[in-house]
Amino acid sequence: MIYPKITKSRMVFDLNGIWDFRFLEEGEEYGGKNQEGEEFLPMPVPSSYNDIYPGRDFADHVGNMLYTRTFTVTGEMLKNRLFLRFASVTHYAEVWLNGSLLGEHKGGFLPFAFEITKAVHPGENDLAVVVNNIVDYTTLPTGSIVRRKFPGLEDEVQNFPHFDFYNYSGIMRPVCLYTTPSAYLEDISVYGKMDGSFYWKIKERGEGSLQIRIKNPQGQEVYTSEKFRTDASGVLSGEGRVENVQLWDCKHPWLYQLEAVFAGEDRNADVCQESFGFREVHIRSCRLYLNGEPVYLKGFGKHEDSPVRGRGFDLVYAVKDIALLKWTGANSFRTSHYPYAEEMLQLCDREGILLIDEAPAVGLHTGFSATGMLGGTPKNTWETLKTAEHHREVLKDMVERDKNHPSVIAWSVANEPASEEEGAREYFSPLVDLVKELDPQKRPVTIVTYEGSSPESCKVAELCDILVLNRYRGWYDTEGNLKGAAALLRDELERFHLRCPDKPIMLGEYGADTIAGFHDVNARLFSEEYQAEFIKAYGEVFDALPYITGEHIWNFADFATAENIRRVDGNKKGVFTRDRKPKLAAHVLRERWKGQEKGQNDDGDCSIGCRNFKHAGDSL
Ligand code: GCB
């Protein structure tokens, strides 16, 4: 899917702003028409709707809500094809245009578009979106609906998310209209290798001729061709090579641009540009390599989360987060637990940040307790869940959307599923194969696993190219005893290494809830000192084990969760507070990560080979 950008042939019109908003009652159908006397509230788009107005009933509404607005179409716009695009609507959208149903979309974190050329007229047009925020055993992420009875009261419907982040919803990412000529480019796929060779594929609609141009990071044209192959399904492809290639890495994230010019029979050419990098990701002998150099991943699990806007996309927070990430000396993060906004990935391409791009598949575990926490033993998860088909769809859409980003160095198919249960391998094996088949670059694929899935019980380790483990020794168990926690951690990592001696292993999550400003000389639970000591204790284990290829701390910043007695005003495992102020741990990490940088490279290269792999090599 091509990101909407103004080009020589395309216009883009922003539909962000204040929309009209109201809840639909249980059982109320929208039907394409506003009713007399309906009252609407102003609602900013993009944003999560939840925290905009006071009231628990408001924030925790379960079911449908209605967003409406009008927009004007000009005669000039209708000389082209016109599309309506949503970057995400969480979790389900039914889109109505001028009283008729245009289409629907399931899945809250990936874009979708409809051609509306024939459905609009010059002048004002009515747009309405019915949004549903229910999570259950058919959605990703998952959840459960519970109807509770209270004496003397009406039944109450509650929706329990099976995940530890607030179920923010609404139109949370930008909405726009864009135009294309009648014959147009539908998708561009492109990547480059270290030797300067590059490969592209284009899906187009309509007959026409194609020209490909490549510009180097300095804007000079370095390649042009009109030659291509056409396969049976009409996909055009080709390859080429540029001389003196400037590789993409964390220190020098050089971006090239492919320009495709597709001229239809009316000679009205569609022109689109796509950024890409020349870089290679490999795994060899339990190490991850970027452009042939071992890379150690330093960073965080994150969330798209900030005060007031919830999960609503916010460029200010996106840029600030990358700045803070770099300030700590981090080089990477995981888009836990859903694909992030496209603009964030573009920023990471530009800033040289490495990403593990995660599907919104969290909560695939029937042992979740009503508070959304992993509280029980999973039972028949893989017979109970009805997510397999939707999981395929979101993986397809995620790879389709994000394939060209050089910052994406690996895919995560799911977070903390019941991977120790019978049926897990059968569920995941076709999904991992699907990602590999769809990804033109064949990047590493992982399934992020939790403590219940041990080296002895995990059913999916062999499916993963890299083992990404979430561990909370010293927090959810062995709490307060960091020596014991470190010993348990090390023992488990050794057992995983014995089982999969050739696979790199990294910690995808480890962390401790920490109340900013809460101090204790004895490093007690919840104090800033405990979080700092926790990070140091884990760091010592990693440094002693050569096959450890990365450390992602949970979490970059404090974030909102569903209310429950294990959370005080949200999840406080942030190294930064929710408003991005550093806790003590931020300084500790900065010292650790920036220190490694100095030890390794005098010129301050934080990207590659941050850990000393000399001894690691000896032991392999
Ligand atoms: C996990 C989950 C993450 C939670 C975290 C926690 O294992 O992957 O979503 O927020 O633990 O803080 O408990």
Descriptive account of the structure:
The protein has 620 residues and is an alpha+beta fold. The protein is built from 10 helices and 31 strands. Helices cover 19% and strands 30% of the residues. Strands 28-27-26-25-24-31-30-29 form an 8-stranded parallel sheet. Strands 3-2-4-9-6-7 form a 6-stranded antiparallel sheet, with no helix packed on it. Strands 1-12-5-8 form a 4-stranded antiparallel sheet, with no helix packed on it. Helix 2 packs parallel to helix 3 (342-351) and helix 5 runs parallel beside helix 6. The longest helix has 18 residues, at 482-499. It starts with 11 loop residues before the first strand and ends with a helix. Mean pLDDT is 94; it is low at 599-620. Bound molecules: (2S,3S,4S,5R)-3,4,5-trihydroxy-6-oxo-oxane-2-carboxylic acid. (2S,3S,4S,5R)-3,4,5-trihydroxy-6-oxo-oxane-2-carboxylic acid binds at residues 164, 337, 415-416, 450, 470, 509, 554, 571, 573. (2S,3S,4S,5R)-3,4,5-trihydroxy-6-oxo-oxane-2-carboxylic acid is lined by residues 164, 337, 415-416, 450, 470, 509, 554, 571, 573.
